[in-house]
Design a protein that fits this description.
This protein is α/β, with parallel strands linked by helices. It contains ten helices and seven strands. It has a single domain, classed as Alpha/Beta hydrolase fold, catalytic domain (Rossmann fold, 3-Layer(aba) Sandwich), CATH 3.40.50.1820. α3 links the parallel β3 and β4. α1 crosses α10, α2 crosses α3 and α4 runs antiparallel to α7. The protein is globular and about 45 Å long.
């Protein structure tokens, strides 16, 4: 159903292991300028038993946007950033503009071994001190700690394997070469090597693509500096301007 809201629509796609709650602070700040949509991705939260499959995720997202009135500006972190790229490649008619961060298109080295190593830690995720330490490392704000802990408790090994393998398998779609809207592809300074390689590669594929870096911060920088993330969304999508807080790579 189309909305009568005159604000442009902004679709925010959460990262793997997170949830819509991770955008609560951003949505509060952006609500005056955008009609914000924050869907829950498969293998997370109440959908923990649904496998994350790329073609199904894109199809579902396209149907969701169509039911909400059509095209939107799209932003996403990590897994959500990959999904934003996939949507732009397969359904460019539904993407007004793009801003993704931490989107890996070079695979996760030794992903199978990584998941085996993670298995013992899954037994620790329900222990309070371990969960709080993990939340601190992810820069989860105090107000969202309860939501993070709830999601962490509900996460299964099967769900984590599903979205981690999907993320590792993701490669930049060829359709991005025909995407004719402005695209901002970003990473934190302290990212892994695969993401450091991915950002300039993806930016170069998109005709109106721009690659940038956030100094001093790491993969979950939108949680570490929500004010900057909000500024980027507002200035990039509304004014077509890249804020000074992002540097060229």
């Amino acid at each position: 159903m189309a909305s009568n809201d005159s604000r442009p629509t902004l679709l925010l796609l959460h990262g793997g292991g997170l949830g819509p709650w991770s955008y609560n602070r951003h949505v509060s700040a952006l609500a005056s300028d955008f009609r914000c949509l924050v869907p829950l991705l498969a293998s997370h939260g109440s959908r923990v038993h649904e496998p994350f499959v790329w073609h199904e995720a894109v199809k579902e997202l396209a149907a969701y946007l169509e039911s909400e009135g059509g095209p939107a500006y799209v932003t996403g972190l990590s897994l959500g950033g990959q999904l934003g790229l996939a949507l732009a490649a397969e359904r460019p008619d539904l993407v007004c503009g793009l801003f993704v961060t931490g989107a890996n298109t070079n695979g996760i080295p030794m992903v199978g071994a990584t998941m085996k190593v993670m298995r013992p830690f899954m037994r620790l995720k329900n222990i309070a001190w371990f969960s709080r330490l993990n939340a601190k490392q992810m820069s989860v704000p105090p107000k969202e700690l309860a939501a993070f802990l709830e999601g962490s408790r509900g996460l299964t090994m099967q769900a984590m394997r599903s979205f981690l393998q999907a993320s590792s398998d993701f490669r930049a779609p060829d359709g991005l070469r025909q995407f004719d809207k402005a695209a901002l592809v970003v990473r934190g300074e302290k990212e892994s090597g695969v993401i450091k390689r991915s950002v300039p590669e993806v930016a170069a594929m998109i005709p109106a693509g721009h690659g940038r870096m956030v100094p001093k911060l790491s993969h979950p920088w939108p949680l570490q500096n929500p004010g900057l993330f909000v500024e980027v969304c507002r200035r990039w999508f509304l004014d077509g301007v890249i804020p000074d807080g992002l540097v060229s790579i």
